[in-house]
UniProtKB/TrEMBL annotation:
Native organism: Streptomyces calvus
Alphabetized GO MF terms: oxidoreductase activity
Superkingdom as given in the UniProt entry: Bacteria
Pfam family, one: MPAB_Lcp_cat
Descriptive protein name: ER-bound oxygenase mpaB/mpaB'/Rubber oxygenase catalytic domain-containing protein
Length: 293
């Protein structure tokens, strides 16, 4: 297979009718590492909206059980990508996601914003650091895939195009990014989790490198001291060089899904999709006494 042969195949597909199939080719074959990193960043930046960060702190899922929460979120979202919306596993994953969210009084605006991060952040990351830029077919397919997911989740007023997703994200962050002590605790716990995936002596270096990849509004919201200009330049250059090196490799022949990531550690003996995620108890850890579910 030639290096750009899969991209040629994607360009022959319909990005509306075959959106999830195109998204699967992009995320599992063309850019598995980049999609993993960019979706981590997508979820992470939502903590900077105080209402979201505080709820996550109240549930303690990302402070007391960071690894499990990371694993469950990755596995549930990726099950839909791997198996499709119409599959038994895809429907099971969506039901599990909906039951978790419906237990809390989450404003529709926040749900819509989180969905926007899933569409926008991978495109921005890959255009900056990937071995090639995303094609228009891939960008459209991503927006259609997540628009479909949003409808399955009952989210209202979902943006209709990538450009609308991007405008919604930028406007929401400008209006809502702010300091919150509880959100900062969730952020610190997430940075600690990411550092825990590597040898302990590297933890300070990895934390600095992660902060160097964050944009200024995110750093201000969490009140992190920004790394120096030289550090930021070296980190960005290093990630870009990785993308250039990948361009020289032969194309991936087998898919790589989230369940295969080395960062997934909670289920060495396997898992059932219906068991993943949180099981909120009314009246405890941010769950209303009478949940809406």
């Amino acid at each position: 297979m030639r290096r750009y042969e899969r991209l040629e195949r994607i360009r022959r597909m319909d990005p509306y009718r075959q959106a999830t199939e195109i998204y699967r080719l992009s995320s599992a074959y063309e850019f598995p590492w980049d999609f993993t990193r960019s979706l981590e960043l997508a979820l992470y930046r939502t903590y900077a909206v105080p209402r979201i960060g505080r709820l996550l702190a109240e549930t303690a899922e990302l402070t007391d059980r960071s690894q499990k929460r990371y694993d469950d979120t990755s596995l549930l979202l990726d099950a839909v990508v791997e198996h499709g919306f119409g599959s038994d596993r895809g429907r099971t994953a969506i039901r599990r996601v909906n039951r978790m969210h419906h237990a809390y009084d989450i404003p529709d605006d926040d749900m819509r914003y989180v969905l926007c991060t899933f569409v926008v952040m991978p495109r921005r990351w890959i255009d900056a650091y990937g071995w090639r830029r995303l094609s228009r077919h891939e960008i459209v397919a991503s927006a259609v895939h997540y628009r479909t997911l949003g409808r399955h989740m009952g989210i209202k007023d979902i943006p209709g195009s990538y450009e609308e997703f991007e405008a919604c994200l930028d406007a929401y962050e400008e209006a809502h990014f702010a300091w919150d002590e509880d959100a900062r605790r969730v952020s610190d716990a997430t940075l600690d989790l990411m550092a825990s995936w590597y040898p302990r002596p590297l933890a300070p270096l990895l934390r600095t490198a992660t902060l160097a990849l964050l944009d200024e509004p995110l750093l201000r919201a969490f009140r992190y001291a920004p790394p120096g200009a030289a550090t930021r330049a070296w980190v960005h250059r290093g990630v870009r060089l990785r993308g250039r090196a990948v361009r020289l490799l032969p194309p991936r022949r087998a898919p790589h899904f989230a369940r295969q990531n080395r960062e997934i550690k909670s289920y060495p003996n396997g898992y059932r999709l219906q068991d993943l995620g949180t099981h909120p108890v009314p009246g405890l850890r941010g769950c209303p006494v009478r949940p809406t579910d």
